[in-house]
Amino acid sequence: DSGVTQTPKHLITATGQRVTLRCSPRSGDLSVYWYQQSLDQGLQFLIQYYNGEERAKGNILERFSAQQFPDLHSELNLSSLELGDSALYFCASSLGQVTGELFFGEGSRLTVL
Amino acid sequence: GDSVTQMEGPVTLSEEAFLTINCTYTATGYPSLFWYVQYPGEGLQLLLKATKADDKGSNKGFEATYRKETTSFHLEKGSVQVSDSAVYFCALSERVKDTGRRALTFGSGTRLQVQP
Fold first, then answer.
1. Contacts of residue A107 in chain B, CB cutoff 8 Å?
2. Strands, E, within A25-106: which ranges?
3. What share of chain A has pLDDT > 90, as a percent?
4. Which of A47, B102, B115, B116 sits at a 20 to 30 Å CA gap from A20?
């Protein structure tokens, strides 16, 4: 158990809809990262937050947004969903901004029909 | 930008066979290098790391040496077990001035299947 909790584990929705994925980092970790894992794109970095502030942005679509709250949990919002958004979304956390040893959650599997 | 290239999988081996999974990288600076492992139905977990050239990371019988001259970080294990069946990801993290380091850049992953 990594200590990172993601909900929901599975989500099935329709095109055009909006969903929110939630992540609770390990106790004491200030950084949260979101990654998307799909069969054809591999593991893609989306965005990083550190202590409530956005620190780095990767290949995140404009339809997607995220935030980190004062209690350090984070939410990833995916809107106007398309079939191609079906993927496993991972949250990871680390103590500081210096990356390397990330602790991953078990992921949220999103299926868009 | 930074990138990591791994050998295509799946890699299928018999128990006790020798394992090599190749990983090469492209980076402009001096990255730290990592191997992560993803067991079925689980998230990724750090297997080993190396932070500078010629460092050797090791854990659970796995080893990888940071080779700057060949920009490689190949994963090896002398004798694999069925329980090693998983997907292995090579990753790098490069230092940048403003935030310290970028988030990890991962390779595409290599699936290892070990047969009894």
1. 43
2. 31-38, 42-50, 53-57, 64-68, 74-78, 87-94, 103-104
3. 80
4. B102
Contact B45 A2 (CB under 8 A): yes
* A94 Cα to chain B: minimum distance (Å): 11
Please check whether residue B104 touches A, CB under 8 A.
Answer: yes
CB-based contact A87:A13 (threshold 8 Å): no
> How far, in Å, CA of B7 to CA of B23, rounded?
7
At A77, list the tokens. Answer: 């919002």
pLDDT in tens, B39-49: 988 889 999 99
Give the model's pLDDT for residue B42. Answer: 86
What digits encode the pLDDT tens for the residues A31-41?
Answer: 999 999 987 77
The Cα of A74 is separated from the nearest Cα of chain B by a number of Å equal to 17
* Residue type at A15 in one-letter notation: T
Nearest by CB to residue B103, choosing from A99, A101, A104, is A99
